[in-house]
Write a structure and sequence with these properties.
Layout: E1 11-15, E2 20-25, E3 45-50, H1 52-56, E4 62-72, E5 76-83, H2 85-94, H3 101-107, H4 125-135, H5 138-146, E6 149-154, H6 160-170, E7 181-187, H7 190-207, E8 217-221, H8 227-236, E9 239-245, H9 250-256, E10 266-272, H10 278-297, E11 301-309, H11 319-328, E12 332-338, E13 348-354
Parallel strand pairs: 6-7, 6-10, 7-9, 10-11
Antiparallel strand pairs: 1-9, 2-3, 4-5, 4-8, 11-13, 12-13
Amino acid sequence: METVPPVVGVHVMVVGSPALIMKSAGRVKGLGPVGCCVATKERKALAIQKSEARMLASLPYHIEYKTITIPSADHGEITLGRRELFDIRAQLMAEDTALDDSSAAGLSMDDIKPNIYEGGFKTWECSVDLARYLATQSEYLSQTLSNPCTIVELGAGTALPTQLLLHLRLSKGSASNSPRTTIVLADFNASVLKLATIPNILLNHQLGDEVGPDESGGDVEGFDELGTKFLDFLRGCNVEIKAISGSWGPEFSAMALPEMSEIPDDILILASETIYSPASTRAFTSTLLALLHRCEGAGGKARALVAAKRVYFGVGGSVDDFLNELRELGGEAKVVWTTDGLENGVGRCILEVTSGVKEANTQIY
């Protein structure tokens, strides 16, 4: 008998707009292992509107963080903060409400629990690689800082690459003529977005340029009181942030880039450590290409950067498997950065991915 696994769903949290919108997909027949979403007519969706106040209520009063310093081509050394994993665990244990499966998994020492928790509370090596690569690429920085742009990070977790770009974008300050910037942060687990991704964004806005490269970390008191001011600052900078949780698939693609007529000229898709599982490689690749096609079909310019280990020992994924899936679906990729394979015995690389096929109506799923 065919078993139908439960679906975490797709949730959309819009930060910097008058309302917080959440959408959730119900149980879907035809959904395989995490991320392996197959188009189906049997799809249920629930839309719930909630106020920003409810979202901000989840912020803790106190937060502890570590820093990482990233050299930039044109902006000197950039120091970013990341919420400590033990600090997230402390908040989870202190909350009165019962933990969901993904939050409970985050309390354990396991890196991942397939279909339940996909490791988003930690900052992984390839996320650091991608942030450092972006910081040295004037072309990408110009694309995202000077023009109307949408940045989509798939499997965001702590979202270090996006944190870098957003830090540089917001350092320009508030101006009525600032280019429109939309940031879409996607992770399988809503708890990761709530407890790591969004708090990290707020943390780095609060730290600004005041943290130097010699500071290894610190803490912030009154963190829960900073959210409303931050949302006002986002609006003034013409920046909107969306957070989406759930499996990859057609519904996700439509939510990430919903209005074709409003898609800016430039779309940059980022992904780190998203191809470690053979079970989800096809779904990730299909989603990546669907987003590229969706943008190009509206006349926009789209590029993607995927950072990954060459081989994921113990879980089975690899860059070669991803490239095979990509080429089978008509996409193209080239290596733009790589290690020599000696560090920790595992080679890592960054791929620039393009759609290959330009027809807007290409069927990916």
